[in-house]
Amino acid sequence: MRQDLSRLVDGTTYRSGNPFDLWRRMRENEPVLWHDAGIFGEFWSVTSFTAVKECLRDPDTFTSSSGTLLRPLSQGHDPGSGKTLALSDAPRHTALRAAVADWFSPRSLRTLTAAVQSAAHATVTDAVAKSQVDFVVDIAAKVPLEVVWTLLDVPTADRAELTGWSMDAFCAGTASERSIAHLEILDYFSVLAEKRRSRPGNDLVSVLATAEFEDTRLPLDEVVLNCDNLLVGGTENVRLAMSGGMQALLERPEQWALLRDDFDRVIPTAVDEILRWTSSATHLVRTAQRDTEIGGRRISAGDRVVLWLTAANRDPVEFAAPDTFDVTRSPNHHLALGAGPHYCIGVQLAKLEIRAVLRELTSQVRRASPDGPAERLESIVVNGLRSLPVRLDAATKACQRRT
Ligand code: HEM
To answer: What is the dihedral of CA 294, 297, 302, 308, to 10 degrees?
Structure first.
């Protein structure tokens, strides 16, 4: 098994879509395993549900400030380390989270519901009119981007250009298009953050640009890094979960039928099963701040632990028949959204978006079928599809469920 471990940090493993056998063997034999992953350095790989959850819930021992993703050692620390919500610890993390929390509260979500539903309706209607589409690009990428533009109150006139850059940066672009587009986005956010600092509005950029921590405002570069985090967290993961969920449903017509025929009853468990099944955030990194122990292994201060969420979400100790996709699964306490103080702040928004798109699809589409081979991303950070060609046959007006 040890020689197989290099596959864990090789993007082609995820492109082929089959890292599960390796994770299963790690979980069964050494769920907390020390190894040297070449350019990524040495770390502990943690694959069991219990151990992953324990680490996530213990920020006093396992810090997020030194970075939460595996990066080649030569790249040094993540530029957001210690500065963004995801990459900070208490007390800074607590203060940052409190500043933005209101935007993810049930009250704010009620206001956002109309925007989410209208984005889902328009996007699915366009896709059904085309009939043959790439589900990733034409549906799953578009809805979360529209929603994030609403949260950040990006002026309508700028949205098409920003959507284009985001598609290049996170979805469809080549490596050089990706980095150029990402720089364009960061530049755009710098200008927007400066404007909102002098003339705040009612949006998340204004909240970040004007919030005070220990009587000082966040430097503008930190406002920009936090906006970027929201964009990446709020769009990439939703896109990957939606498209992976759609693929699972296409491959299992009986699950699609269960959802379509009893939508309101099945949708809550279906969304959680899609999140567990897709586990779009492949791993999270933490760094031990003191000597400790996980699963009987001694961890030294300074050691990195890599928590493989995708592996934990298929642990048979926690999930019955973990390799079965079951839209009625309950209970389903998966870790796709993390756990502990950094638990995904966008959880309800993500669920709302997935639900809205599935509602439109099960209502507007009579038959959905694969229309060519799906392609997976070559990434060790996010797990999922690069493209999913589908054919959507419209339901007749008489058959459409009222949404
Ligand atoms: C399917 C959708 C999503 C998945 C799978 C997902 C996954 C995650 C995970 C695993 C974490 C924990 C990170 C850690 O512990 O280091 C997280 C945190 C976070 N997510 Fe999400 N996320 C999703 C949707 C969203 C949305 C829609 C937004 C906002 C628009 C969002 C914003 C954030 C932010 C800001 C954090 C950092 C929270 C903190 O550190 O306190 N996410 N997400």
So the answer is: -60
Calculate the alpha carbon distances from 170 to 162, 167, 235, 236, 350 in Å.
Answer: 12, 6, 9, 7, 17
CA of 354 to the centre of ligand 1 (A): 15
CA of 140 to the centre of ligand 1 (A): 17
| 68-84 tens-digit pLDDT | 999 888 888 888 899 99
If one residue of 63, 237, 354 were mutated to test the ligand 1 pocket, choosing by the most ligand atoms within 8 A of its CB, it would be 237
CATH class as words, domain 2-399 = mainly alpha
In 4-118, beta strands by DSSP E: 32-36, 42-46, 62-63
pLDDT single digits (tens) 327-359: 999 999 999 999 999 999 999 999 999 999 999
From 344, 349, 353, 354, give the residue whose CB has the most ligand 1 atoms within 8 Å, as the site to mutate. 344
Distance 343 CA to ligand 1 centre (A): 7
Cis amide leading into 79 (omega within 30):
no
